[in-house]
Design brief:
Blueprint: H1 13-33, H2 36-48, H3 50-56, H4 60-73, H5 77-84, H6 87-111, H7 114-117, H8 119-130, H9 137-143, H10 148-174, H11 182-207, H12 209-214, H13 216-234, H14 238-244, H15 246-270, H16 276-287, H17 291-297, H18 304-351
């Protein structure tokens, strides 16, 4: 009877739902399987379609909240506890990214007179240095074949501290450059992080860690879509800025690449004793700063130069993982080879 009048029988509803959701699930799975290529493509799509940026700019906070939720819900608790039982490395990396980097940047900005000459650029650099690492850093490290667990654990500890360290350094170096007071900045950061952690915990409780792991690629695809929303939202004016002031815009792009690779190289060299593969993973994390978190905390009330610099940072953030993947694979292969050689040597020693 239901079929005769054009209604779907109840017995066929599950298969209908499966059909409806199958196509977007396959699309997300394909997108997630593209890895660093999709991440690199995001920045060009965002820059090439300015109207998309204007449409999505009001949703920056929601995009950051989504990225935070995805990262927190994918935390490997067993690996987290394992690393926390050997806290020296995690504590050192956390201190470097949350205290060392903003302290050095703040001192350099004041010593060179940048704070007096260009408030907008000085504010951008300080907010960048004060920010915690990007929540997508573990996923990017995994896509590159690096130690994502170490990145994730350090990310969690540094993110927990950033409301307090950001408030401290804002008070020390920013003065009246911010429209929000340092304590209010810290409280807003704490609120955003606490809310996203609570949401992620509820998601893990409802669906379970095993289901989250099984759907890794579709979640990666959804993560890339949110990255596109964020990148488009802050890059909506890039083309018009490039036309209006080409030298200044290109100069900011060059500066963003220079700072990114300086942080990457310095961090990798500082931690080289733990092996270049793991040191590069930490370098990737430190150079990938979560500027979106700062945008959300300040409600986007920032000077045009600050916005433009933040937009330019999207190029190294999205392109560097793709560019560095061959180097990461070389380090990983060397580490695996060393481990295999050590295992062979041990086996031969036991036999003799």
């Amino acid at each position: 009877m239901a079929e005769r009048i054009g209604l779907t029988p109840p017995s066929r509803m599950p298969s209908l739902l499966q059909t409806v959701f199958a196509l977007p699930l396959r699309a997300l799975t394909w997108l997630g399987s593209q890895g660093t290529r999709a991440v690199a493509a995001v920045v060009f799509i965002a820059a090439a379609v300015p109207p998309l940026g204007m449409l999505l700019r009001p949703y920056v906070t929601e995009a950051i909240f989504g990225l935070l939720c995805i990262s927190f819900m994918r935390v490997d608790l067993a690996a987290l506890y394992s690393h926390l039982r050997r806290p020296a490395l995690v504590a050192t990396a956390t201190a470097w990214t949350t205290i060392g980097v903003p302290l050095i940047v703040g001192l350099v900005a004041h010593a060179t007179g940048l704070t007096a000459r260009s408030h907008g650029l000085a504010l951008a650099l300080m907010l960048q240095s004060m920010a915690s690492p990007m929540m997508a850093s573990p996923a990017l490290a995994a896509l590159m074949g690096l130690d994502a667990t170490l990145v994730l654990v350090t990310l969690v500890t540094s993110t927990a501290l950033v409301p307090f360290t950001a408030s401290l350094f804002a008070g020390l170096f920013l003065g009246d450059m911010l429209t929000i007071s340092p304590p209010a900045l810290g409280l807003k950061l704490l609120g955003i992080l606490a809310a996203s952690l609570l949401a992620a915990t509820l998601i893990r409780w409802v669906f379970g860690a095993a289901a989250i792991q099984r759907h890794k690629q579709p979640i990666d695809g959804f993560n890339i879509i949110i990255l596109l929303i964020f990148a488009a939202a802050i890059m909506g004016d890039v083309v018009s800025d490039l036309v209006a002031q080409p030298l200044f815009t290109i100069g900011l792009a060059g500066l963003s690449f220079a700072i990114y690779f300086t942080l990457l190289a310095v961090t990798t060299l500082l931690f080289r004793r733990i092996g270049y593969e793991r040191a590069l993973a930490l370098g990737l994390m430190v150079s990938q700063r979560n500027l979106g978190l700062m945008l959300a905390a300040t409600a986007g009330a920032l000077p045009p130069t600050t916005w433009l610099y933040f937009a330019m940072t999207q190029f190294p953030i999205h392109l560097a993982p793709y560019m560095l993947t061959p180097i990461a694979r070389r380090f990983t292969a060397r580490a695996d080879g060393t481990g295999a050689a050590a295992a062979t040597s041990t086996t031969q020693g036991v036999r003799s």
